[in-house]
């Protein structure tokens, strides 16, 4: 079902324009996306040289806002392709006067065009769409096409933290990471019954957990 356009959306986006960068490319072509680089200036945006963490698919921004509040010494970029969704996230960040959180509206296929090489110290993939049909596997955010992009923007020693409620997607992710130069650690098939500390729950995580679904989690890092 297509999301209904929010009232006064363009006006609301303009009012939050100091919190949102708009990625213009939307043809979702991996082959042509990287031909022209238009890097954003992270130091100019955040006015410091603190480490930068990236959440891909931030939704309404609950996780992004909370983790930014808890970690003022880290800068956070949060990516979401739907204007209807990202506007609420940006409004909440603006209301909270978060100076270490900035949003990018657009598709993950184009991150390599806008984010400089080796500039990200951690990527969060929280409850990404699993695209359960095999013919759509290339759209999954842990498909090797995306892992190639992540490798280019991740700093040395950086990590990818993933959470999902979908067992098949989690198994697919483990396979893709393992086959594409990543090692895994802190893998759990039931996060909320593990000894992991400091977990920040997303909107989807709260819902799925309340419905009795186990939460799967891993950390991946580049080894080649």
Descriptive account of the structure:
33% of the residues lie in helices and 23% in strands. It is α/β, with parallel strands linked by helices and 224 residues long. The chain has one domain (32-222): Vaccinia Virus protein VP39 (Rossmann fold). The protein has an eight-stranded mixed β-sheet, with helices on both faces. Helix 5 links the parallel strand 3 (75-80) and strand 4. It is globular. It starts with 8 loop residues before the first helix and ends with a strand. The relative contact order is 0.15.
Largest sheet: 8 strands, mixed
Radius of gyration: 17 Å
Helix content: 25-40%
**CATH homologous superfamily name?**
Vaccinia Virus protein VP39
The N- to C-terminal Cα distance equals 41 Å
H/E element sequence: HEHHEHEHEHEHEHEHE
Strands in their spatial order, largest beta sheet: 1-4-3-2-5-6-8-7
Low-confidence stretches are none
Work out the count of structural domains.
Answer: 1
Coarse structural class: alpha/beta
The CATH architecture can be given as 3-Layer(aba) Sandwich
Notable characteristics:
single chain; 224 residues; globular
What's a quick, concise take on this entry?
By secondary structure, the chain is α/β, with parallel strands linked by helices.
